[in-house]
Amino acid sequence: MLKIQATLWAITLTSVLSACGNLKSSPDTQGQPAAAAVDPTTQCLSAAPTLTRHSPGELYLSAAQCIEQDRLDDAAFLYGVAGSEGRFDTRRVADTTAHQVANFLGVVFTKHVGETSSARLSGHMRTQLDDPQARQAFCRRLKGLPPPSYHPQYMLGHGMQAFTSASAKDALIALPDAHKAWASAVNEYMDCVE
Q1: pLDDT at 169 over 50
Q2: For position 160, what pLDDT does the model report?
Q3: Quick check: 113 and 87 in contact, CB under 8 A?
Q4: Buried b (16+ CB within 10 A) or exposed e, 55-71
Q5: Which residues contact 79 (CB under 8 A, 6 or more apart)?
Q6: For 37-47, how does the pLDDT look when each residue is reduced to its tens digit (9 = 90+)?
Q7: Is 144 exposed, middle or buried (0-12, 13-18, 19+ CB in 10 A)?
Q8: What is the pLDDT of residue 193?
Q9: 80 CB-contact burial (10 Å; exposed 0-12 / middle 13-18 / buried 19+)
């Protein structure tokens, strides 16, 4: 029964992400090809500078793979990156009605992995992040990644602008300092202390 439930949640997550656009990373905002050497939807990714070329949905699916492989440190890091990316995307997507999808992906992830796995990951993260020095190190690792460069189609496709505007020209806000916006998003999502 649990296997059927997990399969149904995987289908739901895939459907939600597919409805948001393409599940695979689209070309990034600098015109670079998407990170295609690995498939984060079927592999547990390790921390690497290329993580932020993958969308939050892809990273949540990768984190689920990590949990299955009992790689909780990697799962926790991917979860932190995915959530921080969602916060970053709320800074660069103009349509505020689309922003709630970032939180929704976290909820769908929790349902996808199930209560037991979600509790394991939450407990692991709590143990890691309750120590102020460990939290600081975790935050530094996240902020050391380059700002996300994928196109946030998953978010753009969920706001009212997607249904009411024929033009996508004003969909993204040009961030004057993407590195500063990324650090701010990490601080907000991970409750990092400056």
Answers
A1: yes
A2: 79
A3: no
A4: bbbbbbbbbbbbbeeeb
A5: 59, 60, 63, 109, 121, 125
A6: 678 999 999 98
A7: exposed
A8: 74
A9: buried
